[in-house]
Amino acid sequence: MLRDDIHLLGDLLGETLRTQEGTALFEMVERVRALAKNGRLDELTELLASQPTDSALPVARAFAHFLNLANIAEQHHRIRRRRDYQRDPDSKPQPGSCDEMFGRMRAEGIDADALFDAVTSLRIELVLTAHPTEVVRRTLLQKYRRIADLLAYRDHVDLTMPERRETDEALRREVTAAWETDEVRHERPSPLDEVKGGLFVFEQTLFDAVPRYLRILDDALQKHTGRALPLGAMPLKFGSWIGGDRDGNPNVTAEVSVDACLLSRWMAAVLYLREIEELRSELSMKDGLPYREILRDVRDRLRATREWIEAALERRAFSSSEMSSQDLLEPLLRCYQSLHETGNGIIADGRLLDVIRRVHCFGLTLVRLDIRQDAARHTALLDAITRELHLGNYAEWSEEQRQEFLLRELESRRPLIPADIALDEDAREDLRTFRTIATIPRESLGAYVITMASRPSDVLAVALLQKEVGVREPLRVVPLFETIADLRNAGATMSSLLQLDWYRRATDRRQEVMIGYSDSSKDSGRFTAAWELFQAQEQVVAACHDADVELTLFHGRGGSVGRGGGPTYLAVRSQPPGSVNGRLRVTVQGEMIQAELGFVGIALRTLEVYTTATLDATLAPSPAPRAEWREAMDRMSDAAARGYRGVVYETPRFLEYFGTATPVNELSELNIGSRPARRAGAKKGVDTLRAIPWQFAWTQNRLLLPSWLGVDDALRDADVKTMMREWPFFQSMMELIEMVLAKAEPRIAAYYDRLLVPEELRDIGETLRSRLAETIELVKRATGHERLLENNPVLRRSIEVRNPYVDPINVVQAEILRRLRVSGDESLRDAFVVTVNGIAAGMRNTG
């Protein structure tokens, strides 16, 4: 059926090309497709390189649109397969579903009460982040959603012939409308544009998906434990960095964070208003007047809240005040209890129960906003304060001196910072951020995440700054360890911090620690980073256990394998023992928001898998690795790091090669994200480049270097068969590397080199492609596979089908880059964006 959907959408796109652009373009696209499918790359490159940009670009657009349509068909097919599982009374539960996992746990001897307690104690939070790998405009996402809805409607077996014709005609209109939509952003999105984009997924899917997910969870819980999900139980919630992540992004100001919270609350009010109106209509039975009166008051208060927020966004006064989550929940619970008491429980357990559960999940804020900033900015702020107050130079103090000062001020009852203190612009903005935190309702805010944390004083500094500005309920402070050096020191840092009596009291023996997958991979490569992250988690778990502190680990995963991406269940299941323990926080970044949460059916599966994976890792954690495995990993990790750094940081002119062989410099000029590609004031270099453009650039030329470089050095003299068979962590890491290698296309990377790289640098590319070939052979030897992805034929087939459609876009992109670099013609940038979109669509997990 997937093949049929792809053929249908491909045929509709072909019709669109003929009717909208003419037969010549259609015939050219078909010719290019035939060459690409037959692997005739030389003829393909000769054909496309000879075309003027105005002729080549529509070809690239056509292939980009086809890949986006294929993505829609694949996502719809995932939903269809899930429904097939659920529809067949004789089929086994879908792997990773609540039904399957709960049944397996019971069969393995987990007591029903223990399973119930574990499920109802889960604390999972998915944190949405904005990243420039999400290149698809929201207008196109809306069209893609309508196409998916039409495909779903088309699956109905009882459609009449007129209904089927109408559906196909509607699909034809949507495909044409997508083709006629400009996929290029002509202005860089502001942080508030990104906030609105993030809220889109709540409006379109999550607000509907969450109560349906909870009904699935409830059904499985009753089936396998005999007990229903408690009314207030909420195993999964949502956070966001969008509008709060100011790390290296000067566009995220204190005012932006205020507006991000207001927009989120406005969206919540709008969504709840819709539900309350529906509830008032449903509760229209003969004795339903009291419920309608109660809900009328709720409706009126929600309307007033919406108007208050609109006034606040426009910076104008409004006499009414906003409603709180408790204000919304209390009357709903009264109605729920009354309906049950009067024999109308079946009505109460319908829409009303769904709304109550939404309030427990989303509150009236929809999503809690994290604030994130670099530790160096806090150091600079405190240094400016101590200098201005003639207390010394904080930045020059030792760690012991810093801690002594911070603890003394934290325990002092007198204020440290005068209201009128004179500070420079950066320090004023950072202090303004803390003062703003004090004014935002606490239920709108989540955590304060410290980027590049490396010492206890980094955490104490944020605690002091919150105290000084009068934050009544301080945000929990979350150190983010991300470089290799900081990961290696994470356990010692947390142990020192948790030994401080003031800190343990202030945190009520609860601690959240974030680990970053991006910078560690950029430091030493994916293989070494994976092992360092594993060990860092073990050390943090031990430090918190020794201090009798409850730990939540926050995983900063990206979309690409090089930044921690990959299948969710395997990733969670392969964490060190004791590192999950019923609590998990994880980022959903960039394009993965749409991929994992963009359709209700996909979102249901995503939420269910996060639940079961977390539960599985809690109740049946993987055993600790054997001593000989650790020794082997240490040796392989050291070899991988040397091999990676020997290329990236020590090869002469490697940075110059990177800048010519990939579109990294051109990507930084595009309007695909509000964040600059480099930190402010940073010199050009791999170490100062953000991890996202580093990964994204290598994805565009299909070499995917950061995800596999160094693996050859790790595996060359290693015997890993036992680890592959018995250690989930190693198995997960190798499966992800295998997937990356299957996606890499050295012929395309070689074409970029021929077209774009100066001759004297091309030997670097030749060496890298030679190492890629060796890595593939070594990975096949380690996995025992004769071909890549031998045990995952569905994914292998998907990649093989996509590649011929991505190849022509790459050819056009390389030619556009050549012309752009030679002529400097700015009009070529829009054409370049089209190719970026197309390659991202074909490669899927790109950033």
SSE map:
Layout lengths: L1 H20 L1 H15 L3 H9 L3 H35 L10 H10 L4 H9 L2 E7 L8 H17 L6 H20 L10 H35 L10 E5 L13 H29 L6 H25 L11 H17 L3 H18 L5 E7 H14 L10 H13 L13 H15 L5 E7 L4 H13 L7 E6 L2 H15 L2 H7 L2 E7 L1 H7 L1 H21 L3 E7 L11 H6 L9 E7 L2 H6 L2 H20 L7 H22 L5 H8 L2 H4 L23 H10 L4 H4 L2 H5 L5 H6 L1 H16 L2 H11 L5 H22 L9 H31 L4 H16 L4
Parallel strand pairs: 1-2, 1-8, 2-3, 3-4, 4-5, 5-6, 6-7, 7-8
Folded structure, characterized:
- Strand 4 (445-451), helix 17 (456-468) and strand 5 form a beta-alpha-beta unit.
- The chain has 847 residues and is an alpha/beta fold.
- The protein has an 8-stranded parallel beta barrel with strand order 1-2-3-4-5-6-7-8, surrounded by 7 helices.
- Residues 559-565 have low confidence and may be disordered.
- Helix 2 packs across helix 35 and helix 20 packs across helix 21 (526-546).
- The chain has 36 helices and 8 strands.
